[in-house]
């Protein structure tokens, strides 16, 4: 009998539900076991990978190395899913059990349903691992899902949540897979992907994630509520990329935070983790929401598809400093501050009136923390078409947002170098600079930095009309 663990986006040893259970079974029954990762061909553009693939594969490679040092071989199985399983079954004829942290949404869910149906000789042990609660765990008393976050959060706060599973790492080498078969094709493919990475991330993996968490809780948590909306401050945890690849579990964040003093900061952090679960639940109950608005009545909105404007937004050349700074942060780092995600998504949908799906897809391509549920939820929230969205008549003003959340323009200057010498007085509306000030600050509007690409006031009215008319 051989058992297997199928790693996906759960590259950690601690509080990894499937890993914990496969090891318990191996130790109890003294069975052989293997570990594998199924490598789908990622999209390669102009000879390089997107930043989020860079981040993902670098974490995978580091994790594989870590397992290897413990005597555990992580096999990289290539090909389509059927081909990959055929390879596994041929190579390990005694394979009978597969331990896996399952996906309940999106393409991952379809794949899990497929393998379960197609390989009935294998016993799959599916575990819920990536989120704190299961989507069916927090429901209204009549059994229906919540549509609004506040009552959801009240109920979420009360449900019993599984604590993290502790693994004794010092005993791990005892579980060596004693498996020296190497999948040449898989190794080669991984090596090729490594060479295609254009950006090297140095703070990756479980140990860094735990350090980041510790630092955040010790130094930043107290001021989290006050600082979290100001992108120039290091006010948020920046744990989202680790959560995405599973270098850290959300349960670990929750339970470690609960050991700390009960402060407003701690309560705010826990609420954010609940938002993550909320959007997961929304996607679970609305599996078509990557394409379709959750609010049915808004499915017929006639969104703009202007590619030229879309490109301006992507490049951070809208002429609105805060929006441009956010978009350039995304391009440079594959990550964007939450306040900017809200402002740039609102700008695309309400100022450019562009289809939120195009924005969602761009974020999906760029974000190293891309999480379908949170991204779809965030975009539908900003576009006012989802469940519990910002009301369509409350449109973010890009200049007011800038004045409120980047008062002195520090964040803007960091990412929009053309505006580096613009006086604070004009940093939020550089087009109002007198000509001599433009020259003195080496930022001539129309030449060094664009004029605003749209008139916010009139676009706001057009956006409201768009909603009123459906
Ligand atoms: P912190 O403020 O430190 O929060 C801690 C954790 O709570 C985060 O790591 C995250 O897991 C969770 N969290 C915080 N805010 C939210 C939120 N609004 N919704 C859901 N979970 C939240 N988050 C992603 O993880 N992946 C995405 O693809 C994503 N796309 C988004 C798109 C839009 C348009 C918007 C408005 C928000 C999106 N978010 C997404 C949510 C949020 O912006 C990020 O989770 C947050 O900025 C991550 O930074 P942090 O870890 O420093 O957050």
From TrEMBL:
UniProt protein name: Deoxyribodipyrimidine photo-lyase
Q: Does the keyword Flavoprotein apply?
A: yes
Task: Return the annotated site residues (Electron transfer via tryptophanyl radical).
Answer: 303, 356, 379
Q: Which Pfam families match?
A: DNA_photolyase, FAD_binding_7
What's the superkingdom here?
A: Bacteria
In its UniProt record, a GO molecular function of this protein is: DNA binding
Keywords in UniProt for this one?
Answer: Chromophore, FAD, Flavoprotein
GO BP, sorted A to Z: nucleobase-containing compound metabolic process; response to light stimulus; response to stress
Give the family this protein belongs to, as stated in its UniProt record.
Belongs to the DNA photolyase family.
InterPro entries tied to this protein: Crypto/Photolyase_FAD-like_sf (IPR036134), Crypto/Photolyase_N_sf (IPR036155), Cryptochr/Photolyase_FAD-bd (IPR005101), Cryptochrome/DNA_photolyase_1 (IPR002081), DNA_photolyase_1_CS_C (IPR018394), DNA_photolyase_N (IPR006050), Rossmann-like_a/b/a_fold (IPR014729)
């Amino acid at each position: 009998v051989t058992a297997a663990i199928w790693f996906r986006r759960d590259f950690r040893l601690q509080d990894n539900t499937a890993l914990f259970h496969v090891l318990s079974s191996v130790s109890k029954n003294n069975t052989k076991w293997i570990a594998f990762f199924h490598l789908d061909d990622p999209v390669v553009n102009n000879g390089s990978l997107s930043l989020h693939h860079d981040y993902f594969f670098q974490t995978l490679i580091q994790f594989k190395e870590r397992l290897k040092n413990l005597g555990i071989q992580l096999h990289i199985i290539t090909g389509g899913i059927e081909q990959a399983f055929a390879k596994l079954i041929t190579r390990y004829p005694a394979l009978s059990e597969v331990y896996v942290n399952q996906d309940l949404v999106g393409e991952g869910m379809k794949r899990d349903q497929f393998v379960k149906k197609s390989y009935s000789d294998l016993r799959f042990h599916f575990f819920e691992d990536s989120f704190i609660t299961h989507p069916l765990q927090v429901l209204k008393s009549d059994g229906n899902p919540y549509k609004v976050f506040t009552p959801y959060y009240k109920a979420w706060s009360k449900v019993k949540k599984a604590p993290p599973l502790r693994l004794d790492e010092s005993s791990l080498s005892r579980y060596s897979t004693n498996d020296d078969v190497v999948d040449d094709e898989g190794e080669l493919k991984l090596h090729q992907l490594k060479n295609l990475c254009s950006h090297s991330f140095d703070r990756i993996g479980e140990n860094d994630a735990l350090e980041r968490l510790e630092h955040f809780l010790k130094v930043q948590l107290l001021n989290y509520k006050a600082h979290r909306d100001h992108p120039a401050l290091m006010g948020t945890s920046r744990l989202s990329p680790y959560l995405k690849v599973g270098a850290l579990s959300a349960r670990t964040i929750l339970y470690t935070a609960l050991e700390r003093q009960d402060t407003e900061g701690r309560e705010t952090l826990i609420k954010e983790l609940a938002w993550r679960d909320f959007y997961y639940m929304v996607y679970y109950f609305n599996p078509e929401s990557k394409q379709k608005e959750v609010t049915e009545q808004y499915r017929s909105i006639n969104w703009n598809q202007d590619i030229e404007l879309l490109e301006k937004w992507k490049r951070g050349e809208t002429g609105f400093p805060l929006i441009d700074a956010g978009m350039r942060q995304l391009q440079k780092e594959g990550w964007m501050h939450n306040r900017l995600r809200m402002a740039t998504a609102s700008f695309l949908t309400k100022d450019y009136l562009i289809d939120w799906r195009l924005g969602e897809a761009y974020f999906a391509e760029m974000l190293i923390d891309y999480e379908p549920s949170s991204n779809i939820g965030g975009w539908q929230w900003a576009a006012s078409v989802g469940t519990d969205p910002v009301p369509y008549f409350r449109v973010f003003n890009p200049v007011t947002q800038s004045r409120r959340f980047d008062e002195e323009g520090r964040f803007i200057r960091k990412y929009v170098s053309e505006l580096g010498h613009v006086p604070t007085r004009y940093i939020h509306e550089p087009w109002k600079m007198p000509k001599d000030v433009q020259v003195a600050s080496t930022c001539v509007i129309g030449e060094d930095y664009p004029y605003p690409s749209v008139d916010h006031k009139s676009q706001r009215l057009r956006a409201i009309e768009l909603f009123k008319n459906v």
